[in-house]
């Protein structure tokens, strides 16, 4: 049975943009009620809601949900008319894709050919091509499809049926050959294997051999029946992959490929350096500094020199450590990290004047090493203090349609669409409008949007927007429970999620403090409660703070250790602190994982900034490197 055609006029985004900022509470409630009517299939109630929202930015989005739900039962002319009336909406592309995919399933080929002949969307172009191949294969534009295919690693889902025909009947073998080569080089092995049937058997055997070697270098690299001396790129890649999991045996593989001339001299040097750094960083490494020093100075890359510095500094060999730093490339020396450590090594050698000169060059930076340099000089964080005192620049009225739409969509809890609109605003709006948007978002409690707009606006004032003290009641309550400073929790939340309560990572970590479900379950059980939603700030902050306390029981109540554990896991940190390192700043810089190293430094930067915002300008970053909690 056909659903009654929509009779309420739909306003496009352009028309709706004239709506005064922002939605009223009644309009917000009407939108939510309209969605409920759609879910319960109350067409009359939905139409009344849509009529009440006429002229608002969110009206097209309510109708979108209705059309999406009834896509298979509405007349196709009605759906098409809606799509054509709303070309600039954030849902238009996905709705169009769903609509034409359904029409393809229904074998409405003539309708598809007529409607999509001029489409600029590649997704829809492939639906059009699919229809053409079903009805008029001689009119299929194979050259156009090929021009698209060579540019992508994996075609869009709508293009896969077209790709199958193209590979079977039209694809030049040389083009497929080149694509497989690229895919293997980019470690896209599954896709490369899928294309092997479309190249000659000799090429197929060759590529399968390379895939085997790279996928399983430990078992395949030194046992192949045939080797290809013109394939140094793939053998280099195999040794690199081996080194990530077993640098000790990868060195044997490196010796093998060198002996058999399967890598060039320059590739060998790069691999040798890479594996040596891996080996030197192992907790069980034998004479790690000796391994680094065995590499000729003229062959040492920056990574080797940095490893040599860390190992020398850990051994108290300040002169040797300084030599490594002074031989860094000009580009590497631009990093304040190495300016600070050059100062520390000069200080270690009794050259205080030179150390102070180096510290002074970075002491005004509001960064981990800028703060540490100021601490060495016993100087105040004057730039940070001035930022806290500085009043924000005058805010112009918010007129940008994307930002206004984003705020309206956030108000009706359409967060996915809201973020799309916001990012569009960040790409296209003027700096003054980004500044205005940051204030508007902050005032509404949309802290993540406020941070993004404030950072993009590059305005020196309004530090409270870039570093919001959001969810203050819950943060302070959880901090008090464990004797933690609330500034620490705010600093961690900013690093983990930018205060986005519905954030979800690729690793399936959720919410403000980016918790894994098993971790949250464990913390809820310890607190004697049933786990609440991790998208709810109340529960997320409670469980996240409980987890901080939990890991402190494993690694000790020392903030750098606790923060590193929150990111990498306490089982890793237990290994990294054995034996303990007296210089905690050097320990932080020596954390083996680049992500965790940056994570700890970023949070401690944030914490200092939050303390200054809270009025405590006596806090030093050194306090957090050497302080234990709770006290």
From TrEMBL:
Q: Which InterPro entries match?
A: Lysozyme-like_dom_sf, Lytic_TGlycoase_superhlx_L_sf, Lytic_TGlycosylase_superhlx_U, Transglyc_AS, Transglycosylase_SLT_dom_1
Per the record's keyword annotation, is Signal included, yes or no? yes
Any one Gene Ontology MF annotation carried by this entry is:
hydrolase activity, hydrolyzing O-glycosyl compounds
Q: Which UniProt keywords apply?
A: Signal
Segments forming domain Transglycosylase SLT:
476-578
What's in the GO CC field? membrane; periplasmic space
| Entries under Gene3D superfamilies matching the protein | 1.10.530.10, Bacterial muramidases (1.25.20.10), Lytic transglycosylase, superhelical linker domain (1.10.1240.20)
Where does the UniProt annotation place the signal sequence? 1-20
Q: Does the keyword Signal apply?
A: yes
PROSITE patterns found in the cross-reference section: TRANSGLYCOSYLASE (PS00922)
Family indicated by similarity: Belongs to the transglycosylase Slt family.
The name this protein goes by in its record: Lytic transglycosylase domain-containing protein
What organism is the protein native to?
Answer: Wohlfahrtiimonas chitiniclastica
What lineage, starting at the top, does this entry show? Bacteria, Pseudomonadati, Pseudomonadota, Gammaproteobacteria, Cardiobacteriales
């Amino acid at each position: 049975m056909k659903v009654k055609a929509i009779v309420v006029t739909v306003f496009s985004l352009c028309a709706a943009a004239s709506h005064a900022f922002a939605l009223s509470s009644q309009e917000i409630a009407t939108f939510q009620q309209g969605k409920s009517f759609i879910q319960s299939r109350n067409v009359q109630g939905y139409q009344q809601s849509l009529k009440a929202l006429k002229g608002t930015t969110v009206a097209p989005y309510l109708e979108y949900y209705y059309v999406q739900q009834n896509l298979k039962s509405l007349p196709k002319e009605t759906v098409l008319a809606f799509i054509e009336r709303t070309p600039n909406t954030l849902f238009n592309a996905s709705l169009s894709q769903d609509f034409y995919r359904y029409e393809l399933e229904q074998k409405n080929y003539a309708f598809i050919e007529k409607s999509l002949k001029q489409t600029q969307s590649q997704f829809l172009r492939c639906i059009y091509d699919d229809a053409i191949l079903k009805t008029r294969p001689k009119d299929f534009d194979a050259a156009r499809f090929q021009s698209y295919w060579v540019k992508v690693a994996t075609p869009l889902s709508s293009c896969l049926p077209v790709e199958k025909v193209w590979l079977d009947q039209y694809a030049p073998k040389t083009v497929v050959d080149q694509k497989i080569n690229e895919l293997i080089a980019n470690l896209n092995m599954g896709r490369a294997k899928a294309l092997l049937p479309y190249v000659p058997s000799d090429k197929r055997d060759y590529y399968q051999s390379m895939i085997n070697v790279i996928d399983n270098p430990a078992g395949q690299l030194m046992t192949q029946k045939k080797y290809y001396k013109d394939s140094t790129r793939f053998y280099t890649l195999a040794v690199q992959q081996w080194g990530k999991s077993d640098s000790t045996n990868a060195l044997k593989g490196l010796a093998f490929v060198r002996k058999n001339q399967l890598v060039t001299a320059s590739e060998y040097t790069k691999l040798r350096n890479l594996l040596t750094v891996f080996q030197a960083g192992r907790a069980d490494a034998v004479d790690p500094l000796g391994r680094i020093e065995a590499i000729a100075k003229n062959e040492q890359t920056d990574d080797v020199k940095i490893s040599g510095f860390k190992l020398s500094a850990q051994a108290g060999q300040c002169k040797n450590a300084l030599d490594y730093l002074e031989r860094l490339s000009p580009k590497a020396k631009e990093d304040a990290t190495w300016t600070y450590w050059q100062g520390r090594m000069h200080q270690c050698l009794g050259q205080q004047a030179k150390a102070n000169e180096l510290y002074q060059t970075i002491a005004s930076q509001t960064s981990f090493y800028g703060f540490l340099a100021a601490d060495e000089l016993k100087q105040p964080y004057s730039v940070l203090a001035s930022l806290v005192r500085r009043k924000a620049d005058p805010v112009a009225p918010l007129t940008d349609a994307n930002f206004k739409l984003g705020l309206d969509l956030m108000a009706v809890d359409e967060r996915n669409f809201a973020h799309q609109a916001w990012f569009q605003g960040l790409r296209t709006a003027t700096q003054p409008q980004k500044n205005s948007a940051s204030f508007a978002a902050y005032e509404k409690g949309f802290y993540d949007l406020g941070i993004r707009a404030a950072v993009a606006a590059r305005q020196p004032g309004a530090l409270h927007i870039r570093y919001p003290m959001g969810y203050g009641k819950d943060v302070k309550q959880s901090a008090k429970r464990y004797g933690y400073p609330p500034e620490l929790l705010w600093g961690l939340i900013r690093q983990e999620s930018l205060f986005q309560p519905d954030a979800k990572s690729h690793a399936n970590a959720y919410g403000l403090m980016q918790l894994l479900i098993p971790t949250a379950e464990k913390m809820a059980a310890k607190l004697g409660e049933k786990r609440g939603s991790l998208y709810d700030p109340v529960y997320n902050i409670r469980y996240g703070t409980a987890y901080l306390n939990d890991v402190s029981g494993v690694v000790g109540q020392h903030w750098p250790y606790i923060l590193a554990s929150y990111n990498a896991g306490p089982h890793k940190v237990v290994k990294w602190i054995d034996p303990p390192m007296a210089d905690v700043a050097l320990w932080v810089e020596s954390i083996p994982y680049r992500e965790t190293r940056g994570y700890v430094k970023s949070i401690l930067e944030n914490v200092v900034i939050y303390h200054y915002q809270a009025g405590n300008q006596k806090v030093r970053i050194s306090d957090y490197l050497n302080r234990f909690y709770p006290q």
